[in-house]
Design a protein that fits this description.
heterodimer; A: 163 residues; alpha/beta; 8 helices; B: 419 residues; Aconitase, domain 3; five-stranded parallel beta sheet; 13 helices; 18 strands; 29% helix; 18% strand; binds iron/sulfur cluster
Chain lengths: 163, 419
Amino acid sequence: MIVEGKVFKYGDSIDTDVIIPARYLNTSDPKELARYCMEDIDAAFAKRVEKGDIIVAGNNFGCGSSREHAPIAIKASGISCVIAKSYARIFYRNAFNIGLPILECAEAVDRIDEGEQLQVDFETGEIHNLTKNEKYKAQPFPEFIQKIINFGGLVEYVKHSLE
Amino acid sequence: MGMTMTQKIIAAHCGRSSVEAGEFVEIDLDMVLGNDITTPIAIREFEKMGAKKVYDQNKISIVLDHFTPNKDIKSAEQCKESRIFAKKHQIKHFYDVGQMGVEHALLPEKGIVAAGDTIIGADSHTCTYGALGAFSTGVGSTDMAAGMARGKFWLRVPGAIKVKLTGKPSKYVCGKDVILHLIGKIGVDGGLYKSLEFTGEGLNHLSMDDRFTIANMVVEAGAKNGIFPIDEKTLQYMTGRVDRAWVVYEADQDAVYEEEIEINLTTLRPTIAFPHLPENTRSIDDAGDVEIHQVVIGSCTNGRIEDMRAAAEILKGRKVSLDVRTIIIPATQEIYMQCIKEGLAEIFIEAGAVLSTPTCGPCLGGHMGIMAAGERTVATTNRNFVGRMGHVESEVYLASPSVAAASAITGKITNPETL
Ligand code: SF4
């Protein structure tokens, strides 16, 4: 699968509280959550984000509580994938489980700037910076993760395997 | 290439002769755990998956421990939902009020988890069972649902940090000081994705309760799991509790570790994590004058019988400060009963502490000891994040039961050696 979109760039240790503040956790409706996504760090995010866009961030993305609402809000906002230097462990799992593709690539994070246009190929792990005309290589998803992503998350994957 | 202990357990549970750090694999699960907060969400996901029955009713544990005995209507509803599910699917290891204890103290005590097992739990401190030589880790509710439906779990094989313990600890140094010191050294993301593998002759001086405390808090360094080799103490602990065969795995001689850290127990001092991160540690000698208002001794970190004994040793024949609310919570019914039999209960009450039925209670700011603005608690729990035990302007200091008990007497953070 290949996705394309413009970059929203953030720093290190973006925690689940800024991705989706606890005051909005009284709902688990993805559309509702998407309206408040990144609100405490980037108030304009929800208005500016378009389908396919990509978040690029530093180390330890998604640290803090284990709330699944965080990757759900990002996915529902239209973001097609996240590229970071590293992820907090439980966020990492939750992202794949709810069907949000995430990649690790320190080189890409260092080179990419806010607003640039990227094309990402999940099968090869290739990140193409269309603005700078550069290519970076992240680890492609292993076959198994690819399967979960293709099903749109763990719920559908399990549903299929139980049939 | 050689494998670590964790990698060997993972390989055996995905039918492979070897695995390497960084690989993604799907493993078979020996146990799936949930509590009264995470189980209701997992039940909904389980139903969305179209699952009609659980993969094995004997390999799921549901423990109602966080907001129990129920503190309000919402928590009662959550427990009710979990209870109905457990009855419907005839979950063997379902523990309700009267039987329940704090999950990570309860499962090993009941012999539900054992050496060589693979365990996931929708609770971040599920890593506790690494003390028994098992692979166990915390997950989200969707993972719990998938685990209940299929008995399988995907993961990335972790690389490892070897933590070598040497020397012999002095009287008031225990497992809590070892893990706080380690977190202070490597930081709250120092073990990210990795397994912390404990070794060294220093282990001979650490009891099973010490090891449970250490394994419990590896998640506070970001680690996927922590694990201990199996020795006489482990075997003795499991004998009579675990009524099935277990498997002993050992790290290969040529196992690959990304890093090696040594901790000398002989020179280790009682250690305290200051607000608001577990990595913010100081030796008791540098604690300074910190006035406190509350002490909590309990939780899945330090609510076991040795913790109760350590607290009682300090409190015996003494009175806690009238300015310190002292709350002692044995982690399980068995530990509670033991406190009565050994006369610890009497010591606590005579000292002016309250002795509570098992519950997570104040540890997560749930109930039974919530702080107001500006208040400080010395707690034997595992997290001191902003607002963890109440108001956002309250503070939690993490310490061992001996330090907590000594502090209850004087009303400020106190070295038990000085009493
Ligand atoms: S005692 Fe605290 S850390 Fe342990 S399971 Fe309960 S709430 Fe979580």
